[in-house]
Amino acid sequence: MMDKYLLFLIMGLVTYIPRALPFIVLPGAKMPPFVKRFLGNIPFAVLGALIFPGVLYSAGEVSFGIIGGLVSVLMAFFELNLVLVVAGSICAVYFAKLLLL
Amino acid sequence: MGVDNINIRGMNGSDLKKGFLDGVPIALGYWPVAMAYGLLAKSVGLNFFECTAMSVMVFAGASQFMALNFIASGVGMGEIAAAVFLVNLRHFLMSLSLSPKMLTRHLGIRALLSFGITDETFAVASVKEKYLSSSYMAALELISYSSWVLGSAAGYAAGAFLTETLKESMGIALYAMFIGLFVPLSKKSRKVFFIGVLAGLLNGILGLFISRGWAVIAAAVLAALMVPGTGEGEENYDG
């Protein structure tokens, strides 16, 4: 039987190092314009990749992922508070499941 | 936040409050996922302290679920560590993107705050704020981290209180948050919309061939390279 706490410590370290490196090494670094442009695009690209296709499989069957996703898009389009978007989407999926299952 | 009212020392009560408020949707989204993790940890045979300790030390959802599966099937420590490293390597990209926006140059504070970079804290921090004060980041990360750790413990302790339908429904939470961040930005900038959609499509295609962790990294990098700059926040990157 392996020592679980040692395992968690190692997992923590290998997770922490990639998070920490740019924060610790980079302050004061001058970057060329194309790197700045690239890094400026990263948040929107990461958001897109985090949303799709994961959202499809997030709520059981794909149909419920689509329902939840569409409800989120609709509420987000009207720029509702983020907490409302989250809570509203959970409710929408829940009631859709109650009605359709 | 305009350039003129930046608090260079990075300690600021209103930033603290703003960080907490911006962290509420993350905390809300983490709670059910953390509970699911706690439930699974119990079913795999971890004790309560082991279950909570992993959340305290690692703070990375997908890799913790993966580790539970590996522990259950008797996979060795080295292989688990390697897999966790690969799955979480995407945070390097996020940290790289956030780093120039961090106002503080204090290495200790930066080292501490980098622990709390997750998909979710990254998404909120990079979209909501132009510059990141230590107070803002600390508050945003602390409320998210607390939800993750307490939710893990609660999931272990509470057992199967939630119905299957409710658990599945709550799976939409974090995606709803990402969508809630992305859609308003897309309304303002066609380029943002295009980059996001491109990254999503690339991720869908790449995911057929490579693991999820690598697909997200590759899709984001490719989409960010293929589209010329959004112009948004470029002046942030003067280091």
Structure commentary:
The complex is a heterodimer of chains A (101) and B (239). In chain A, 75% of the residues lie in helices and 0% in strands. In chain A, helix 3 runs antiparallel to helix 4. The two termini of chain B are 18 Å apart. Chain B is built from twelve helices and no strands. Chain B has 239 residues and is mainly alpha-helical. Helix content of chain B is 73%, strand content 0%. Chain B is globular and about 50 Å long. Chains A and B meet through helix 1, helix 2, helix 3 and helix 4 of A and helix 1, helix 2, helix 3, helix 4 and helix 5 of B.
Principal-axis shape of chain A equals: flat
Task: Tell me the radius of gyration of chain A.
Answer: 20 Å
Structure class of chain A? mainly alpha
Choose one word for the global shape of chain B.
globular
H/E element order of chain B: HHHHHHHHHHHH
Key words describing this protein structure:
heterodimer, A: 101 residues, mainly alpha, B: 239 residues, 12 helices, disordered N terminus
What would a concise description of this structure say?
The complex is a heterodimer of chains A (101) and B (239). With 101 residues, chain A is mainly alpha-helical. In chain A, 75% of the residues lie in helices and 0% in strands.
